[in-house]
Amino acid sequence: MDLDKAIRLRKSVRKFSSKKPDWRDIIECIDSARYSPIAGGNYVCNFILVDEKEKINKIAVATQQDFVAKAKYVVVVCSNPGRLVNAYGKEGEIYSRQQAGAAIENFLLKIVGSGLSTCWVGHFVEDEIKNLLDIPSDSNVEAVFPIGFELKKAIAHTRREALKGKARTKKAPIDLDRILFFNKFGQEEMVKQKKLRD
Ligand SMILES: Cc1cc2nc3c(=O)[nH]c(=O)nc-3n(C[C@H](O)[C@H](O)[C@H](O)COP(=O)(O)O)c2cc1C
Q1: 172 within ligand 1 shell (Cβ under 6 A)
Q2: Which of 82, 153, 161, 168 is buried deepest, with most CB atoms within 10 A?
Q3: Considering the entire predicted model, what is its pTM?
Q4: 145: containing domain
């Protein structure tokens, strides 16, 4: 799928059809997360693909969001800042969280390109998820992603049909001119640069 289209089609989906995704498609989405920028050459993220119903139910409880339990697969993303903190001190902790965000966006765009749907779930009781999935105590749980096919009236239920379908691109939540500045914070116009002499 065209990148611009994937960016504009991405949206949070909280209702899934009963059709089970092919787990190999989800692995491909996780694979794409390896190509994001990484601080200091240290890859910090792990992706845990969960398909055990009992665990998915417990993850849903930890998120306090029932729709999570309706997914056939859940991907939990965690990061371990240890090596980045060793290398960069406190900044390493920030780099680690930023790196996870970049990896997650790759993952999300690939999910769109695969005809799948998800929702970034960032509200959860972290210790419950760590205990459930044996995530090391020095790691951070970044987010939970229930994965499925979007449930819509008469929506295409297979990956190929979903990809063929005429999904509507969405409106950006904020106007570009409210978030874009030039050369300094608050400067809303691009000032023409004076020509430098040779
Ligand atoms: C860090 C983060 C945490 C989020 N946590 C939740 C959440 O716990 N539950 C939920 O339903 N959506 C959550 N969302 C999804 C947002 O609600 C959603 O992205 C936003 O409303 C914009 O809608 P869109 O994703 O369809 O563009 C989260 C998004 C981000 C980036």
Answers
A1: no
A2: 82
A3: 0.88
A4: 3-154
